[in-house]
Design brief:
UDP N-Acetylglucosamine Acyltransferase, domain 1; disordered C terminus; six-stranded mixed beta sheet; five-stranded parallel beta sheet; mainly beta
Length: about 150
C-alpha cells in the first residue's frame, strides 16, 4: 500500500481492509462523518488513482429548514473485486463479490456479484465472469511485491 491514502475525518470513522487487499499507489479511501464506514473485502485490488468515499466531502442544506440533504452513507466492497485505475466508488455503493469495475468508471448504488461494469455511471457489461491476476503474475512475478519492484 505504498503511497496509498486513507483519511478518517470524524468521530468513530472506520476503514476496514480485509486480508490480501491490494491498494495501489495514489488510491484514496476517505471516510467522513460520525461512525462512517468503508469496508473492502478479502483479495480485492484497488488499482492506481481509485477514490472510495462515503461522503460528498461538503454539506448541502435545505435553504428553508437548514436540514442537511447529503448525508454520508457507508461503502461496502465485496471479496475478490477488481477496481480499475481512476475509478470512483461513491457513497452508499456496494459491489458484490468477484466483480470487475473497469478503468475510469463511477459506481453509484448496488452492483451484483461476478459482473463486469464499465462507464459513467457504471453499467453491467457482462455477467457470470471471474478475473485473475495471472497475466500480471506471469509478467511481474507471483506476489504484489513483484509488482512494486517493477514500478519503482
Amino acid at each position: 500500500m505504498k503511497n496509498a491514502t486513507i483519511h478518517l475525518l470524524g468521530s468513530g470513522c472506520i476503514a476496514v481492509l480485509d486480508n490480501d487487499v491490494q491498494m495501489m499507489p495514489t488510491s484514496l479511501i476517505r471516510v467522513i462523518g460520525d461512525g462512517g464506514l468503508v469496508e473492502v473485502g478479502r483479495g480485492t485490488v484497488l488499482a492506481e488513482r481509485c477514490i472510495i468515499a462515503n461522503s460528498d466531502g461538503h454539506g448541502i442544506y435545505d435553504q428553508e429548514t437548514g436540514r442537511r440533504r447529503n448525508i454520508e452513507r457507508d461503502v461496502i466492497i465485496g471479496r475478490d473485486v477488481y477496481v480499475g485505475a481512476g475509478s470512483r466508488i461513491n457513497k452508499g455503493s456496494s459491489i458484490g463479490d468477484g466483480s470487475i469495475i473497469e478503468e475510469g468508471s463511477v459506481v453509484n448504488g448496488q452492483l451484483s456479484s461476478f459482473t463486469l461494469y464499465s462507464g459513467v455511471p457504471a453499467q453491467a457489461i457482462e455477467h457470470d465472469i471471474v478475473w485473475s491476476l495471472d497475466l500480471v503474475d506471469n509478467i511481474y512475478g507471483s506476489s504484489p511485491a513483484g509488482i512494486e519492484k517493477a514500478v519503482i
